[in-house]
């Protein structure tokens, strides 16, 4: 299962989409933009999941995409 995460950068001035919790592959100005991109990637790579983090880098929610 592919794992994606949406996390803020150090000072929460940008939001990043990471794959398998490795270095960011995409950076966005808003959290919603990052979530939209992560969902797009996750749907293409089913089964997959997205871990969404808040501005304090604490887990908020996990979204799962299956076939």
Largest sheet: 5 strands, mixed
Shape label: globular
Q: What is the rounded Rg?
A: 11 Å
The N- and C-terminal alpha carbons lie at a distance of: 11 Å
Highlighted features:
67 residues; alpha+beta; DUF2188; 5-stranded mixed beta sheet; 5 strands; DUF2188 domain-containing protein
Structure commentary:
By secondary structure, the chain is an alpha+beta fold. The protein has one domain. The chain is 21% helix and 45% strand. It has one helix spanning 31-44, and strands at residues 2-8, 15-19, 24-28, 48-53, 59-65. The protein has a 5-stranded mixed β-sheet with strand order 3-2-1-4-5, with helices on one face. A hairpin with a 4-residue loop joins strand 2 and strand 3 (24-28).
Write the layout of secondary structure elements.
Layout: E1 2-8, E2 15-19, E3 24-28, H1 31-44, E4 48-53, E5 59-65
Parallel strand pairs: 1-4
Antiparallel strand pairs: 1-2, 2-3, 4-5
């Amino acid at each position: 299962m592919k794992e994606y995460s949406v996390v803020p950068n150090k000072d929460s001035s940008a939001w990043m989409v990471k794959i398998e919790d490795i270095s960011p592959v995409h950076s966005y100005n808003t959290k919603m933009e990052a979530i939209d991109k992560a969902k797009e990637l996750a749907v293409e790579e089913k089964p997959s999941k997205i871990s969404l983090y808040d501005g304090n880098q604490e887990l908020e929610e996990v979204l799962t995409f299956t076939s």
